[in-house]
Amino acid sequence: MTRHYEKPMTPGEIAAIPDEAIDFSDIPELDENFWVNATLVQPDRTQPVTLRIKQSVIEAFKAQGKGYQTRMNAVLESYARTIASKSTR
Fold it and tell me: Would the pTM of this model clear 0.85, i.e. be above it?
C-alpha cells in the first residue's frame, strides 16, 4: 500500500523510517540486461584554482546569497559546454 503524506518529509524524518517500513513493491528488480548496458560515470569533480575576477562580478554573485561560487561555476560550465559544442560542428 502506498502511503501519502500531507507535506514533504524532511531528510531527518526520512532517515528515521526503518528499512522494513519502506515499500519497494513499485520498483522493478534490475536484471542482467540492465547491467550489460550499464556504464560507469565518474563525477566531474571541482578543482581549487586561483582566479582573478573583477570585484563587480564577485559582488553581483554574492548579492544573490549563499552559494555564489557554485553559481559562478555553473555559468562557466554552461559557457564551456557551448564552446565545446560549437567546436564539434
Answer: no
